[in-house]
Amino acid sequence: MSRKLIFNYVIIGLLLIWAVYELVPTVRFEQLTQTEKENLKKEGKLSNLKSKIIKKGLDLQGGMHLVLEVNVPKLVDGLAKNKSISYYDFIEKVNKKHKENIDEDFFNIFLQEANNSGIRLARYYMDRGHQNEDIVKSLQKEARESVTRALEVIRNRVDQFGVSEPTIQRQGNKRIIVELAGVTDVERARNLIQSTALLEFKLLKDATIAQDAINRIDQVIRKEKPNTNLTDTTTQNEKILEKSSEDKAVSLEDIFGITETNATDKSDSLQDSSVTVDGNIVAKRPFSSLLRNLGRIGTGVPAENVFAVKKILNMKEVKKVLPADLEILWSNKSEILTTQSGEAKEFYVLYFVEREPGLTGQHVTDAKGTIASMNSNNAGQSIVNVNMDSKGAKIWSRLTGANIGKRVAIVLDNKVQMAPNIKSKIPGGRTVIEGLSNLEEAKDMEIVLKAGALPAPLNIIEERTIGASLGADSIRKGTMSVLIGLSIIIIFIVFYYKGSGLIAFFTLVLNIVFVLSILAFLGATLTLPGIAGLVLTMGMSVDANVLIFERIREEYKKGKTVRSAVENGYNRAFITILDANLTTLITALVLWQFGTGPIKGFAVVLFWGIIFNFVSGYFISKTIFTTITTRKIIKKLSI
User: Fold this and answer.
1) Quick one: which of 411, 519, 447, 542 has its CA closest to 155?
2) CB atoms closer than 10 angstroms to residue 332
3) How distant, in Å, are the alpha carbons of 224, 347, 349, 417 from that of 333?
4) In this structure, are residues 406 and 412 in contact, taking their beta carbons and an 8 Å threshold?
5) CATH number of this structure's domain 358-451, picked from the four choices 3.30.2130.10, 3.30.1360.200, 2.50.20.10, 3.30.110.70
6) Which CATH architecture has domain 63-194+458-466?
7) Residue 66 region, left (φ>0) first, then alpha (ψ -120 to 50), else beta?
8) Per residue in 347-356, pLDDT tens?
9) Contact of 92 with 83, CB cutoff 8 Å
């Protein structure tokens, strides 16, 4: 055997060893039982094994597909400062027109309405220019950059969540595609991704200011002119929010003119159109009758009244009469409390807080979800320890030191997680977030705080969830398509090319093995379109073999020896094969680079399939043929 053939076999041997090495973890993982996987997980070896296997895409193992869109109106509104009644009127008109003309660019409507209303945007968007046009251009740039920042935040969250091979990519100017293969807790993943994670620390308003706001809302509902001055409401507070009330069910439409059909937020609609009011005060104080005094907890809203209260607070007339520096927020979750009658009822809490936060989450440097130690006041509870940078520590120390005895609301995404009393000055930039349901919720909060806040809320435009059973069905059908295709090819080439066809079949199997090995090596993901690419690769491999065998047949018919016919056949077919495969290779590269989702999955497999087509279909098959003819194993070519 010549040195060239020995060298070829060494290369082939190394390739086979590498292929087996890469595929063994995948085969081993697929053979593991659920119990064995749990044991490996406890030993800390499962994640290491999973990192070496061929990863299956969303369509093969189930998971979720999301298309998210940056809420530009919310982003623009969040950037505004020094908001006034005229600003709220202006932004409400803009949002209304944008909803009516959803296809028109938001910023065109925004600028047009500002100019028509005589609004000087520089009053609300300082440091962004003086002319309305310049400010709008700056806001447009901010919106484009927000998508890039949102991509990074989502990627950080998903990485910490532990999803392998997520697909997170930009689509257009304001959309993001997220695909999480293998996710089983869809609701948790959705909340984790969509959570804005805007952490704020806001001081609660005094009880007199909160009660005055409630009085003003009562006056609006009674269609009276609200009193713009604060009043002494100590006696009123005791009457309006009595701990004991005469509850009775009434119709929303009868008392407030509110129906579910005119609800702006369908998620808050009731199963029926009734609320529970305090019969003692409903006539004089209709809004107050929806509320309950929860003592030190604050102002409570029975669960069945939430829809009505939200509807009232969103009324344009109500927003106008409330102080500009006041914001009314809801508790993050409800509380089950026992009333004086002994009945357990579900309540949400309303918090009357400063509109401007005393401190924001941008100063958070670290967060850790854990179970509180037995030596602490919240022993055994799920908590999140938060650390701040030096600037945040100074602000927090000054804020707590100047407001001892007051309450501060810890707000995440405009919902109050907790509102503890400030007992003393807190130096060092450390605080604890309590009131979490379980450790999993604490860990999720840790993830979003560490990854940072999204620059703007993200709306879900499209959502698809693929169950594991559907993924298994896709694998079964995909495998079946490969086997059927392979069987048809075997029958054809063996029947038509006889012994040469067997060599072609052997190299075709090697081609599939090499493609799967490179996917495992690169950590790439195999998808259903990828399987389609594998089938196409098989077809192209057969095409290359047909070209080679026909050239060999032509040379042999000219009277050349077997060895000479094989040599010349491979040489003559090489340029044709190279030309045909090179154009497909370039196409696969372009699809790989610029394609998304299924297209990219198809392109990855097709690209490597063509590469290994040359390795197995030409290099290895030629080595086998050369060995046979050199040793004169066959004297007559049957092809």
Assistant:
1) 447
2) 20
3) 34, 9, 8, 8
4) no
5) 3.30.1360.200
6) 2-Layer Sandwich (3.30)
7) beta
8) 999 999 998 8
9) no
Q: Give the tokens for residue 453.
A: 């806040």
Cα–Cα distance for residue pair 168/190, rounded to 1 Å: 14
Beta strand pairing status for 326-331 and 415-418?
Answer: parallel
**Residue 52 burial (C-beta neighbours within 10 Å; 0-12, 13-18, 19+):** middle
Task: Domain 3-59+468-630: give its CATH architecture.
Answer: Up-down Bundle (1.20)
Average pLDDT of every residue of the chain: 81
What was the pLDDT predicted at 168? 83
Q: Which helix (H) or strand (E) holds 182?
A: none
Tell me if 627 sits within 8 A of 485, measured CB to CB.
Answer: no
357 φ, ψ to 5°? -70, 145
Question: Is 358-451 in the same CATH topology as 63-194+458-466?
Answer: no
- Give the pair of three-digit tokens for residue 20: 């087996």
Give the tens place of pLDDT for each residue, 264-293: 444 444 444 678 887 778 778 888 888 988
Counting residues of the chain whose pLDDT is more than 90, the rounded percentage is 8
Are 110 and 136 in contact by the 8 Å Cβ rule? The answer is yes
- Between the alpha carbon of residue 512 and those of residues 148, 476, 516, 565, the distances in Å are 38, 17, 6, 28
* Amino acid identity, position 163: V
Place of tokens 């995404």: 413
Angle, nearest 10°, between helix axes 598-612 and 528-557? Answer: 30
Measured N-to-C along each axis, helices 106-117 and 72-79 cross at an angle, to the nearest 10 degrees, of: 40
State whether residue 220 is helix, strand or coil. helix
Distance of alpha carbon 504 from alpha carbon 495, whole angstroms: 12
- Predicted pLDDT at 254: 62
Domain parsing of the chain, residue ranges = 3-59+468-630, 63-194+458-466, 206-354, 358-451
Question: Is residue 157 within a helix (H) or strand (E), and if so which, with residue range?
Answer: helix 132-161
| For the chain, counts of helices (H) and of strands (E) | 22, 20
Residue whose tokens read 């087509």: 613
3-state secondary structure of 638: coil
Q: 200-250 pLDDT, tens per residue?
A: 889 999 989 999 999 999 898 887 665 655 444 433 333 334 445 667 777
